[in-house]
TrEMBL record:
Pfam families the UniProt entry points to: PTPS
Record's protein name: 6-carboxy-5,6,7,8-tetrahydropterin synthase
InterPro entries linked: 6-PTP_synth/QueD, 6-PTP_synth/QueD_sf
First-level EC class: lyase
The family this protein is said to belong to: Belongs to the PTPS family. QueD subfamily.
Length: 155
């Protein structure tokens, strides 16, 4: 090996490591991915500037947990991205939230519960074989303001 630690060759499945070794454990592990979408809204019965139509770049942080599959993966990050895009982004990105969400005041506190319900249904169908489940959501309206939910609170 040289001074920079560059390997002389790549590990080869079947000769350097067996497929049965890819799954190192059978423990529950959490996986987290962050996403953004842009949307506009306003709040009803609110005495403040958010009563006016305005927009945010929302950030949604999704944490799921499950047991690893036979190659050591709980959920592929690409699959988690597809679930987010199908369930949340496709419906909310560049939309007027007061119009596309169920009747509610479009607060982060209300929106995150709706998001939980929608994502939970989609993830249940996706990762049933490894007990993949939603553990935590964080919805940022701004870089310093967010609502959060944990699995225990939704039981």
């Amino acid at each position: 090996m040289n001074a920079y630690g560059i390997p002389s060759r790549l590990q080869v499945l079947g000769s350097d490591i067996d497929r049965s070794q890819l799954k190192y454990h059978d423990r529950r592990v959490a996986v987290t991915k962050e996403f953004t979408f842009d949307a506009a809204h306003h709040l009803h019965a609110y005495d403040g500037k958010c009563a006016n139509l305005h927009g945010h770049t929302y950030k949604l942080v999704i944490t799921v947990s499950g047991r690893v599959n036979d190659i050591g993966i709980v959920v592929d990050f690409g699959d988690l991205k597809r679930v987010f895009e199908d369930v949340i982004k496709r419906r909310l990105d560049h939309q007027y939230l007061n119009e596309v969400l169920p009747p509610m005041n479009t607060t982060a506190e209300n929106m995150i519960v709706w998001m939980w319900e929608e994502l939970d249904r989609a993830l249940e169908a996706h990762g049933r074989d490894r007990d993949v489940r939603l553990e935590r959501l964080e919805l940022y309206e701004t870089p310093t303001s967010r609502a959060s939910l944990d699995r225990a609170w939704m039981s």
